[in-house]
Amino acid sequence: MAGTENGGTAGPAGRHGDRPVERARHWRYEELPGVDLLRARYVRKTFVRHTHEHFVIAAIADGVEVFHHRGSDVSAGAGALALVNPDTPHTGRAGVPEGWRYGALYPSPEVVGEIAAETSTVRGTPGFASPVLDDPYTVRLVHQVLRAAEEGNALAADTLLRTAVTRLLRLNGGRLPQRRTPTAGARNAVRARAVLEERMAEPPTLERLAAELGTSPFALLRAFRDTYGMPPHTWLTDARVRRARLLLDAGTAPAEAAVTVGFTDQPHLNRHFARIVGVPPGAYQRERKNVQDPR
């Protein structure tokens, strides 16, 4: 397991004096392709609005997590799961003074789609209907997947993952809504996103971006929020972190990754990366390297 985020250590109960110590490990197990894994305890951590390309299946072991999801705050306590579909903006913070401890699986849409096609009656693109599900049995399954991955038990990890996803789709599955016919504003939002992706390191101002697209700044801002659930500058920070993750996975040094995606320096990347991924980029990359090169 990784140490605390600030590099300290904790006693056997994971506490420093009377205060729980924050710690997190974000990793991959090579025998579960397309799935990210996380174990964490957070107390003061606040996740800014962000998205994931993968599904989020977070099993709360103790404490309470509060997260903003589709216009309102929802809470997940011990024995519940926080469930977020891909590309859905959300936040995260403690709902009680002692924070929350949880384990999370991040399966790709392809992994969930494969399981759904074999085991569920969901037609179309599968997803989760509700962001919170009280189901201690599946919470235990998620933690068993993580334990099996830590122990190198590939058969158990794969079996338990499929069992957990199948159960969640049966209890809380549905078809993700189809995209509506895009309006002119939505088309401008899509074009704006493409510009920001292409010019991520040196993005234009909102005024210049709107002028390039033949619209006004406030019209573009409204359209972008309606389409992606966040303003362009917030989306860009999220996208930069996503691309930095890919660079780190490929072995790029954090300082180089920071500049490549448009952050001013590594501390700038560190701050945003930890507020979205939950661990600093250096710790994230070390875990990835351990999977690719177990020496």
Automatic annotation (TrEMBL):
Keywords: DNA-binding, Transcription, Transcription regulation. The keyword Membrane does not apply. Pfam families: AraC_binding (PF02311), HTH_18 (PF12833). It comes from the Bacteria. Residues 1-11 have a biased composition (Gly residues). InterPro entries: AraC-bd (IPR003313), AraC_XylS_family_regulators (IPR050204), Homeodomain-like_sf (IPR009057), HTH-like (IPR037923), HTH_AraC (IPR018060). Residues 190-287 form the HTH araC/xylS-type domain. The keyword Transcription regulation applies. Signal peptide: none annotated. Transmembrane segments: none annotated. PANTHER family: HTH-TYPE TRANSCRIPTIONAL ACTIVATOR RHAS-RELATED, TRANSCRIPTIONAL REGULATORY PROTEIN. This is Transcriptional regulator. It comes from Streptomyces lucensis JCM 4490. The lineage of its organism: Bacteria, Bacillati, Actinomycetota, Actinomycetes, Kitasatosporales.
